[in-house]
Amino acid sequence: MTSWDLLYHLLRANFDDVKSEHAEVPAVQGGEGDGRYEYGCQVTGLHDLGAGKGIEVNFIKKDEPESTTTADLLIAADGASSTVRSLLLPDVKRTYAGYVAWRGTVPETKLSKIAASIFVETMTIFWAPGHLILTYLIPGRAGSLETGERLANWVWYCDYIDGSPEHTELMTDVDGKLHRFTVPVGKIASSVWEKQKECARKVLPPQFVELVESTHVPFVQAITDVIAPQCSFYEGRVLLLGDALAGFRPHTAASTSQAAFDAMLLAELIQGNIALKEFEKRCMNYAENVSRSGVQIGNRSQLGQHPRPG
Prior knowledge:
Number of helices: 8
Helix content: 25-40%
Structural class: alpha+beta
Largest sheet: 7 strands, antiparallel
Strand content: 15-25%
CATH class of the largest domain: Alpha Beta
Low-confidence stretches: none
Number of domains: 2
Shape: globular
CATH architecture of the largest domain: 2-Layer Sandwich
Mean pLDDT: 93
């Protein structure tokens, strides 16, 4: 298991030489290109200029006027709520699956002895009707894997009916803003969090209750489904990849794998080792198969009936 902090900083160290406590910046090797990471940009439009002329991209940065650039290849890897996908395929929408994931972390040193004996070096799962919680260790500060420096990461799936008072209350942050998909860290209303801890005490085993009550900055993400019917546009000059192509349910643990698969497949395409049609076929097969699997797993786990044996 790993953490997003570690993965992000490893990628930035290799892409544009960002220094951090997580990773050393590698030595420059021959043949490398230049990379630039621009913060706070949003694509507002794109136009195909034709073969050999590229793609014109319009975008805005915070507090700046709209800008335009031209690219030979536009890779839209802008997440499950992809702006580029919405421009290309306005009818493709993220849909709520009927449940959310509460998430949080607890330092390994804060675990009681009995909780540590259950959660350390294992993935632990508990299921009850309408609830599924699991926990596992991830790297701690600066990506440390040392015993005592790691974090217990937990995910608790809970049913909420779309548009119900409970769902609306959950997705409304401390500032009164209603979110569609994620309530950011530090923005969950204290009254909502207190209700969730009370729910934990009624539903979960005591070791999981300890995890939940020891978490200071939880956050919530709605579980959704989205998949585009194609990954390539304008004869391969615009590509949808990763979550922008297919947003998997977390049960598959495959979103990062999809991003890596698509990136490696793209390298094969750019190097001329595979044709565009082969790229499209393999990219879409992966997206469709894992997406279908995630829906089946999630619906059975969260919404299905599980009769007890005997």
